Amino acid sequence: MSALTLFYVGTSYLCAAVFFGGLSYRLAGYAATPSPLRIPLTPQATTVFGVIKKNAVSMAVFRALFIGERWTWVGGYSLHVIFVFVFLRHLRLFINPVPEFLVDLQPLALLFAALLPLPVLFLISRRMYVDRYRYISSGADYFALVLLLVIGLSGLALKFVSHSDLVGVKEFLLGLVLLSPVEMPSHPAFMLHFSLVLLLGFYFPFSKLVHAGGVFLSPTTTQVEDNREQIHANPRGGN
Amino acid sequence: MNGEKFSGLAVAAAVMLLVALPLLYSATGNGLFHKPPKPELVLPVGGDGKCVEPTDFMRSNHMKLLVHARDRIVRGGELLPKYHIEGCKNCHVKRAEFCDRCHGYAGVRPDCFECHNLP
Hints:
heterodimer; A: mainly alpha; Fumarate Reductase Cytochrome B subunit; 12 helices; globular; B: mainly alpha; 5 helices; 0% strand
């Protein structure tokens, strides 16, 4: 196994550990943080089932964002939908055998996945050119977007500019999944794309991207609004 | 940890597991710690063992050579271009034993032959 492959294999497993370990650590931190007060954002459902239903709808269509910031919804929602298609495009490289329905989906998924740079560019320009967003934008906001943009562009380059040996790529990725790594295809565009994805994996648990898991643990959205039905005394005393 | 936090954590864990599910699917199908499966190709016997271009190039770019041979023949005026699909068949006799193996492995389905006959 070449030194380059060895480096990438080591980095990949480290990345997986940092990603899953880091994300679990962050979520466990959110879960362990006491939230003795009832602070659901109104309007909130008054039953457990209602909260589940409301959040399921929220996550499916980004309802609050749609109501609150329509243009941000256009960029953000389309980006997240595109993520689903990107996932469907890549899944075939990590599983074997590839299910038939996944093969059927590929042309359609490509059609949407290839649009990824558009919402990202939209969201970058939103932060750059709208004063009130520019004011609250920090380097981390731009970094996440630019990282997504270059990952998307390098991925599209692999499809439309410089094809890699797809069978070699799949063999390498399957080798990683099966904990039995094999030689990595030394194709520049693939190596760039893969390196950037590793960077994203390392960065993810330390960044605002944790909202992917944090959304499930936000007191303001997951608490049932039963302030009037039940007494929620502060366990630490006081009023 | 109150009920909402607990169920939130459970849902987050379930989502992570859902993402990891394809990996489990692949791991159970092929066996952990085993070399990853790769397509088995029936390679041509005889001939000089050389394709029209080096193997590495063909692996990544064969489709670009094959696409739109029509343009080269009808508009470019070549009689039988070097990269004509007829030429492939001289060595790679059976589509099912060569082409389809890698395409199936990587989940690729060329749509040329939905309309065009495979010569």
